[in-house]
Write a structure and sequence with these properties.
Elements: H1 27-59, H2 67-89, H3 94-107, H4 109-113, H5 116-135, H6 138-145, H7 147-160, H8 166-187, H9 190-193, H10 202-227, H11 234-264, H12 272-291, H13 297-319, H14 325-342, H15 353-375
């Protein structure tokens, strides 16, 4: 999961928003404006639907599927999808595709092994998210999970020496305060938060989501650090991550549920709704990685904030979730903090206009290239960052 510390603004080179210039009368700008709002809708639906659907299938009565097997299945589907995309890029030249993959995976094994660490953390994170959503209301999970912005920002400052604007620091404080208020509200109203206390444990869910946020922040920053200077295809990178993710997921599945799965089967408890969750997790992130090129950072902030609102409203109708004033205040602070953090940095006043313009253009291009690569790894996370 990655948080962009210095946000891009609408119309940056390569952002796909206004390629024909600032004038809104060009036909291209109209098309891209439409794609921009389509991207917003996709981001909101993917964000909200995955949380709600996981919560739904994990609280249904009857046989419950194994979360560890679902994580493995999602990894396998992502790897197969990326392999298909690479094959398409090679114009269905199987020999060339195999050669490029062997070169990237085997001959450049040191580069491949670097991805073992983030892949291990992402696999742990995906399993923790199932645990958290199984024990927390969907709205509470989505609000609390925004702490990943705080952890990623702090790891970026510590590991990458990135700087945050005053607005971003204020937004992080608001974010922490909002999550704290929500947790105080939930702690005082556990009966409303968790319907069946015999099968759901609020403390376990809270610990799982906090560890998930910490792992998300570290893995995203670590991955960005090793990604710099790499010219590998984003789809090859996804294959590398997916292979490690599948292997580690199988190991975790064997360790946690091995005996039961051997008895009941890998696909035990799978229903059409469970398959929808797995496909959403596997392809939703890839879809977001494609459409996000048309969305600037502010729009992504809007999407995350709006998805929290959608999740809360749907939780009221689907799960009988109770919203009071304290939760509303806390969630409102989180939504505002997410939007504030996504605002672009103000240009430095010490630089001359021409130098600032030149520096901004070059840094924007570099940022766009890096962001394009980073976004392709969004599938590893339940939420868009």
């Amino acid at each position: 999961v990655r948080v962009k510390v210095s946000g891009s603004s609408v119309g940056e080179p390569g952002a796909g928003i206004t390629p024909h210039g600032p004038h809104g009368s060009e036909p291209g700008s109209v098309v891209n404006r439409q794609l921009k709002y389509i991207s917003l809708a996709v981001l909101v639906v993917q964000n909200a639907s995955l949380i709600l659907s996981i919560r739904y299938v994990r609280t249904l009565p009857g046989d419950r599927f194994f979360a560890t097997s679902a994580v493995v299945m999602a990894e396998v589907l992502k790897v197969l999808t990326c392999l298909l995309i690479i094959l398409l890029q090679k114009r269905f030249n199987v020999k060339e595709t195999v050669y490029s993959l062997v070169d990237a995976l085997v001959f450049q094994y040191k580069d491949t092994l670097k991805l073992a660490v983030p892949s291990l953390i992402y696999t742990l994170q995906n399993n923790l998210q199932y645990i958290a959503i199984s024990n927390l209301p969907a709205a509470t999970f989505q609000v609390t999970y925004q702490l990943k912005i705080l952890t990623t920002a702090l790891f970026s400052v510590l590991m990458l020496r990135k700087s945050l604007s005053k607005v971003q620091w204020v937004s992080l404080l608001l974010l922490f305060g909002g999550v704290a208020i929500v947790q105080v509200q939930q702690e005082g109203n556990k009966e409303a938060s968790v319907k069946d206390t015999s099968s759901q444990n609020y403390t376990v869910g809270l610990v799982a989501v906090v560890i998930s946020c910490l792992s998300s922040g570290f893995a995203g920053v670590y991955f960005e650090k090793i990604l710099k200077g790499s010219a590998a295809s984003v789809w090859v990178r996804n294959v590398q991550l997916g292979i490690f993710g599948t292997a580690l997921g199988l190991l975790g599945m064997w360790w946690n549920d091995g005996a039961v799965i051997a008895e009941r089967g890998f696909l035990f408890g799978y229903t059409s709704m469970v398959w929808c969750v797995i496909f959403n997790q596997a392809f939703g992130g890839l879809l977001v990685a494609v459409v996000v090129k048309y969305a600037d950072n502010i729009l992504k902030g809007f999407a995350t904030s709006f998805s929290i609102i959608v999740s809360t409203v749907m939780s009221i109708y689907l799960f009988g979730f109770h919203v009071d004033l304290l939760f509303t205040v806390g969630a409102g602070l989180v939504i505002g903090a997410v939007y504030m953090y996504s605002l672009p940095k103000a240009p430095s006043s010490s630089a001359s206009p021409s130098a600032a313009s030149s520096s901004s253009s070059s840094s924007s291009a570099l940022r766009t290239d890096r962001d394009a690569e980073m976004e392709a790894f969004l599938p590893k996370s339940v939420l868009v960052k």
